[in-house]
Write a structure and sequence with these properties.
The protein folds into 2 domains: 96 residues, Translation factors (Elongation Factor Tu (Ef-tu), domain 3); 101 residues, Rossmann fold (3-Layer(aba) Sandwich), CATH 3.40.50. Helices cover 19% and strands 31% of the residues. It starts with a strand and ends with a strand.
């Protein structure tokens, strides 16, 4: 499977900024997930679906961890200048994020990376996400639905309580289907049969995915079946988020050139 960079230039790109953003809210949601809201108008103004921010978990200089954490922008309120970050607690860095309270300030850098770029004539979108990967897809679903496009979202997780994004989809009027491991509905072959039955008569013209290599392979196969474009948001550990450190190679290594960097060339790639 090959990941292909999108166009060389990002249309109407807003240059990233580094700000000390006031924390507006930071609340437990469910399972291991928390919702963080930052007052960040400099980022909210230009962030696009699929882009991310780097958040510094430490509140005291010299306090670890030393590296910021890349987080997809889950939603944005451009009028109020706020961004929402839904994050999963998996280690010391994300545990420290939970300690921020309203009124605290958090160092944030963004917007970063390449956004999703559906074809200009795409009006039927299929969005397939699993776990925390869903957070890279929600803003895409919302903005396309606001344009009057037909958007269907598949949300999957380990169990019902681990599925995120369903309330978001309900709020923005996007049809979402929830699938989980515990009842077998998230099995890849079950999803394949479901989507083939639903979409073969009238295929989507764009597919976006994030969160699972198995779902990525499935979306690639279905994209070929339906002759439509597939794009994926790739997750990676990173240090700078700007392409300086070269620490987040996408893994698609060629003989004559360096593997694309997730932070600069991605995180969104075309799948072939």
């Amino acid at each position: 499977m090959m990941l292909q960079p999108l166009a060389a230039e990002i249309p109407s790109r807003i240059l990233p900024v580094c700000i000390d953003a006031p924390v507006l809210g930071n609340q437990y949601v469910s399972d291991r997930y928390w919702m963080l809201r930052l007052d960040a108008p400099e980022i909210a103004t230009g962030v696009r679906p699929g882009q991310f921010v780097l958040l510094t978990p430490s509140q005291t200089p010299g306090e670890g961890p030393s590296l910021p954490r890349p987080m997809a922008v889950y939603d944005v309120d451009r009028a109020d200048g706020a961004i929402d970050i839904l994050y999963g607690v998996v280690g010391s860095g994300t545990t420290q994020l939970t300690r921020f309270r309203p009124g605290d300030r958090m160092t944030a850098v963004g917007p970063l990376g390449r956004p999703f770029e559906p074809p200009s004539d795409a009006t039927r979108l299929l969005v397939v996400g699993r776990g925390i990967g869903i957070c890279s897809l929600t803003l895409l679903a919302r903005e396309r639905a606001e344009r009057g496009h037909a958007v269907t979202v598949l949300l999957s997780g380990r169990h019902r309580g681990a599925i995120i994004g369903a309330d978001f989809c309900d709020a923005v009027g996007v049809h979402a289907r929830q699938l989980c491991d515990e009842d077998g509905s998230s099995d890849v072959e079950s999803i394949r049969r479901l989507l083939v039955e639903q979409y073969d008569p009238a295929p989507p013209d764009f597919v976006a995915t994030c969160g699972s290599k198995r779902l990525l392979a499935l979306c690639r196969d279905l994209g070929r079946r339906w002759t439509c474009e597939v794009q994926v948001s790739v997750e990676a550990h990173m240090a700078c988020g700007l392409g300086y450190c070269h620490g987040c190679a996408a893994g698609e290594v060629g003989r004559d050139e360096e593997s694309p960097l997730v932070c600069a060339t991605g995180p969104v790639f075309r799948v072939s």
